[in-house]
Design goal:
- The protein has a 7-stranded mixed beta sheet with strand order 1-2-3-4-5-6-7, with no helix packed on it.
- The chain contains 4 helices and 7 strands.
- With 192 residues, it is an alpha/beta fold.
- The chain has one domain: Ribonuclease Inhibitor (Leucine-rich repeat, LRR (right-handed beta-alpha superhelix), Alpha-Beta Horseshoe).
- The N and C termini lie far apart (63 Å).
- Helix 3 packs across helix 4.
Length: 192
């Protein structure tokens, strides 16, 4: 299968689903069997999955150590990973490893233990991220939570399972002007 054929067909592939498997560490994925759905997963000649979606929701993960390595063992084209579901785990931060998957368009992180709203900043480098969930994390209680996320990630179209409207964007822009101080431009003394 050519790379182009792969890009055209794998979006239709069912996810590699490790949800509800009591997984504590990412390395467990190599010995755990994924859940089977209505449609069978297709595999490459090397035995790796051809999917672009990885579901790890409803487990007990508290970090993503070795995530890239393990994903490369499971997926034929890990660079094309478009959907990662890490909802309902014990993650306390957004691991920078997630920002290495540039084709990521859907990221579910709801129902975790993410404490700092600033963690969202890491996701700004993902050019194709369109759908993000963070509700059910302690950061949801922070004042300006939705506005902060929409300012930081202006390309997302769905946040916490609700569409982002023009009014949401306008509100976020006003919030940003009122709450985020612009970086001061320093003028060199010699230039005056």
């Amino acid at each position: 299968m050519s790379k182009q054929d792969y890009m055209n067909t794998s979006v239709q592939e069912p996810p590699l689903d490790y949800s509800f498997r009591s997984i504590h560490v990412i390395q467990d994925l190599t010995s755990e069997e994924p859940r089977t759905g209505l449609r069978p997963l297709r595999h490459s000649k090397s035995g790796k999955s051809l999917t672009q979606a990885l579901w790890l929701n409803n487990n007990v993960l508290n970090d993503l150590r070795d995530f890239s390595h393990v994903v490369s063992l499971l997926l034929e084209h890990p660079e094309n990973l478009a959907w990662i579901d890490l909802s309902f785990n014990d993650l306390t931060s957004i691991d920078p490893v997630l920002t290495t998957f540039f084709n990521l368009s859907v990221l579910y992180l709801h129902g975790n233990s993410i404490q700092r709203l600033g963690e969202v900043n890491k996701l700004a480098v993902l050019p194709r991220l369109r759908s993000l969930t963070l509700h059910g994390n302690p950061i949801e209680e922070e004042k300006g939570y939705r506005q902060y996320v929409l300012c930081t990630l202006p390309r997302i179209t769905t946040f916490d399972f609700s569409g982002v409207t023009k009014a949401d964007r306008a509100t976020a822009e006003v919030w940003k002007r009122m709450n985020i101080k612009p970086k001061k431009v320093r003028i060199k003394q010699n230039a005056l």
